[in-house]
Amino acid sequence: EDRNRDEHEFLQAVEEVFYSLEPVIEKHPEYKETSVLERIAEPERQIIFRVPWVDDNGVVHVNRGFRVQFNGAIGPYKGGLRFHPSVYVGIIKFLGFEQIFKNSLTGLPIGGGKGGSDFNPKKKSDGEIRRFCESFMTELYRHIGPDVDVPAGDIGVGSREIGYLYGQYRRIRGAFKNGVITGKGLKYGGSLARKEATGYGLLYFVEEMLKANNNSIKGKVIAISGSGNVAIYACEKATELGAKVVAMSDSAGYIYHADGINLDTVKRLKEVERKRIKEYVKEHQGSKYHEGNVWEGKFKYDIALPCSTQNDIDMERAKNIIENGAIAVGEGANMPTSNDAIKFFLKKEILLAPAKAANAGGVATSALEMVQNSMRYSWSFEEVNNKLKDIMINIHKSACEASKEYGLGYNLVAGANIAGFKKVAEAMITQGIY
Ligand code: NDP
């Protein structure tokens, strides 16, 4: 713990996983004998670098860039890049650590990594974003590759940023190696359904969870935090499955629309115009904007889908969510629920779909993008979407079985951690002491 002492989010993520693994370690002495827990909690490699860039007024700025190559035992490192002012090593390490287990759960051969920068993309011009991305890739390119480490998007990194990053990679390498990054545009090797994959996958997973408990999404009222990539496509699939989404948010506040959110408006405001969510209410009578966190709002819903950022739901907000009538929580964001709030939800028998399992559809589809890139071929939307659905059903099944195997009943939080861990741990043990 000591050497990671200021990395609060990382320590939180490790504590959550290690707590679930206690029964597994007890049953498998080989894990202890080979110090697999100590090894898995230390990244194989961490790269920290300078990212200088010039703004529109000719002023030079310096940001810090990160890439943590956490675990490559089952495949090349894979995980997104986050551009947000809150980024520091503790955030990238928590994300990279979680990514190991999530990627393992997908059943695909991908290791865990994550990266990003403390750069704030808000209120930057397109030229500033491009120059930042070029500078970032001018250092990152030497550490990545289709068989080495394959970044993707995350908060603040969408299709525009991926385009600039890949353009600079291609320019420096002088080769069209588009398997080096995922989330690409469709014209240069992106996969159909990748944009939708995390949000859709979340809903496929939540539907499986409800089905296993004799329930379903149809007819449910849903609240979502965030209005970015994950939130938008979670809303789209939820609506398609017959639910009504009544709330969405950004970091300043949330909108409530009892008739159901009009997603076309949200898509235009966020994906095209890059505006704040509060603009929505100007266009929709009967909708309301409230400042503050959506999970502090008092209104009725059956399912809560946190799709913004880590630690979005603490104990107080968890209590409020239950008071609002929620029976299930599906984590679209990474680590959106604090550890005490997770335990509280489980105690209250709220159905909890944990991030590692529930939001794995994004990275799984990224891995399918890599497959298509190496075949120099592309599948139809339907083909990718069907594969995504199968993967989410299988993740649910693996988490379920692992939880049962260790006598934990229907506990997807523990089950996902256990199933994700065992595959990586076994690969690590067979590969010796690395
Ligand atoms: P986006 O940048 O597209 O959207 C992020 C959303 O979350 C925005 O609405 C943003 O509001 C809000 N948000 C960000 N930071 C905060 C904060 N500190 N407090 C409150 N709200 C905040 O990101 P994504 O949708 O891609 O990612 C959302 C979550 O899902 C993250 O946790 C990410 O790690 C996770 N995830 C994403 C995957 C993907 O495929 N994209 C895959 C798996 C997980 P604002 O605009 O005001 O900042």
TrEMBL record:
Residue span(s) of domain Glutamate/phenylalanine/leucine/valine/L-tryptophan dehydrogenase C-terminal: 191-432
Coiled-coil stretches noted in the UniProt entry, renumbered to this chain: none
Record has RNA-binding as a keyword: no
Record keywords, A-Z: NAD, Nucleotide-binding, Oxidoreductase
Annotated GO CC locations: cytosol
Residues that, per the record, bind substrate: 78, 99, 102, 153, 366
Catalytic residues (positions): 114 (proton donor)
UniProt xrefs under SUPFAM superfamilies: Aminoacid dehydrogenase-like, N-terminal domain, NAD(P)-binding Rossmann-fold domains
Pfam family, one: ELFV_dehydrog
Gene Ontology molecular functions: glutamate dehydrogenase (NADP+) activity; nucleotide binding
Residues that, per the record, bind NAD(+): 198, 229
GO biological process terms, semicolon-separated: glutamate biosynthetic process
Site (Important for catalysis): 154
Transmembrane segments: none
Matches recorded under PANTHER family: NADP-SPECIFIC GLUTAMATE DEHYDROGENASE 1-RELATED
Family: Belongs to the Glu/Leu/Phe/Val dehydrogenases family.
Subunit structure as annotated in this protein's UniProt entry: Homohexamer.
Protein name: Glutamate dehydrogenase
Organism (species): Maledivibacter halophilus
Organism placement in taxonomy: Bacteria, Bacillati, Bacillota, Clostridia, Peptostreptococcales
